[in-house]
Every structure is written in structure tokens, then in C-alpha cells.
Amino acid sequence: MSNALIVIDVQNDFCPGGALAVTGGDDIIAGINALMPQFEAVILTQDWHPDGHLSFASSHAGRAPFEMTEMPYGPQVLWPDHCVQGTQGAAFHQALATDPADLIVRKGFNPAIDSYSAFFENDHKTPTGLEGYLRTRGLTGLTLVGLATDFCVNYSAQDAARLGFDVTVRQDLCRAIDMDGSLDAARAAMRQAGVTLA
Questions:
Q1: What are residue 45's DSSP bridge partners?
Q2: Which of 3, 21, 88, 154 has minimal CB crowding within 10 Å?
Q3: Percent of the chain scored above 70 by pLDDT?
Q4: Strand 41-47, strand 2-8: pairing
Q5: Nearest 10 degrees: CA dihedral of 92, 93, 96, 97?
Q6: How far apart are CA 63 and CA 99, in angstroms?
Q7: Which residues lie closer than 8 Å to 13 by C-beta, 6 or more apart?
Q8: Within its chain, how far is the Cα of 100 from the centroid?
Q9: Residue 16 is inside which H or E element, if any?
């Protein structure tokens, strides 16, 4: 089996000091860098939102970050403005080794729909193209690391498992937002989808 490491959203805005900081988000970077040489391919994902993205609370009058709203594609958390295209917040954390990356997948650039998963936008239909890349290269085993366990890592892992990949999430190299029990729910959902939690 050919294996790929998929590094999810290790960006400044998700690390301490960022607009949507995940506690300990930068603690995992050295471990991720050390893991890269063990894989045939390394893929980085990057949240890449235009200004005024509809998942931002600031795009909805009178709404606050972390409230829920309904979008045409289903329930959506309203986030603080984060990972806006071309900003320092959207950049990869400076400690992350980016040279080993074979591919960088940018997601969330459609202003009307969020994109947690590395494989599909939040409508669960619009593909990012990552599946085709992996299949073309014959990469069937995927190890996921990064931010955040309960959102982008979780959605990416479930989608990958549904697509037939052999998926492992390295929990020691992920960190979670853990909003209202979202981490436990994500772990249960990943296990049910056939993801190995290591």
C-alpha cells in the first residue's frame, strides 16, 4: 500500500495568537515535520477564504461567532473572520516544513459555502480534486494530522473512508476546538466511518 500524509490547515489563524486559535495548535508541528519523510507523498491543506465569506459571523448582521445558522447545504457554525486569502493569518505556520509537500489543496474559496473537508465542500457534493490526485498516484493509505480534530480533520477523515481509502488519524498530532462536546462526537463519527484513531 502506498501511503500519503495529509496535513490539515496548520495555519497561523488556527495557532495560538490567531483569529480562530486552537489550544496547543503549534505543539504538533515538530512531530508532523518528523513524520513527513516516512510517506510517499505529503499533502497540505489550506483554508483560503475570500473577504466576507458567508461562514463568517461578520457577514450576518447581529450574529456572533460560534452561533449556528442554516445554509442551503445544512447547519453552519458562524466563525470569526479567519484565513482570509493572502493574509498572514492564512499563511502556513512558519515552523511547518512546506518544502516536502507534493501538493497544496486550498479550500473554502467559494464565498457561499464552507469547506471543512479536504475532499468535498460542505454540500458533500462539490469535490476539491484531492481524490483524483490520490487515485492517479496510487495512494491508498492516508494518515491525517493537523487542525482541528473535530472539524476539518474529522470531515476529511470521514470522507476519505467513505471514498474507500484506508484512513488513520494520529490523535497525538491533532488538536481540537472541542465546542459543546464536538470532540467526542467527532471521534465517534470517525470510528463509525471506519477510521482508525491512533
A1: 8, 105
A2: 88
A3: 99
A4: parallel
A5: 50
A6: 40
A7: 19, 20, 21, 47, 82, 83, 89, 90
A8: 19
A9: none
The residues assigned a catalytic role are 9, 107, 152
Residue 1 has pLDDT above 70, yes or no: no
* pLDDT over threshold 90, residue 180: no
Residue type, 170: R
Nearby residues of 138 by Cβ (< 8 Å), 6 or more positions away: 2
The CA distance from 171 to 181, in Å, is: 16
- Distance separating alpha carbons of residues 106 and 68, to the nearest angstrom: 24
DSSP states along 57-101: GGGSTT--TT-EEEETTEEEEPBPS-SBTTSGGGSBPTTS--TT-
Q: What pLDDT shows up at residue 179?
A: 87
**pLDDT 10s digits, 83-136:** 999 999 999 999 999 999 999 999 999 999 999 999 999 999 999 999 999 999
Query: How many other CB atoms are found less than 10 A from the CB of residue 106?
Result: 16
